[in-house]
Specification:
23% helix
Length: 71
């Protein structure tokens, strides 16, 4: 799975919907992009190994699939 990364750690300051303390999960949805839930607060998402691995995998796919290749 790949996608936006948001997850609450057992509290819901934004209502009953899962959130990371800043954004609701529903606010992060992008058409065609699967959702990845990460057990981290908003401020610490960038430190998550799950997030880092996802970004590295995406960057590799872009490079090796020729997304930026000259045409």
């Amino acid at each position: 799975m790949r996608g936006r990364v948001v997850r609450a750690l057992g509290f819901f300051p934004l209502g009953d919907e899962p959130n990371d303390g800043v954004l609701k999960v529903s606010e992060t949805r992008l058409t065609g992009v699967p959702l990845v839930l990460v057990p981290a607060l908003h401020t610490y998402l960038m430190n998550s190994r799950i997030v880092v691995r996802d970004l590295v995998d995406r960057a590799r796919a872009i490079v090796f699939d020729g997304f930026f290749s000259a045409q």
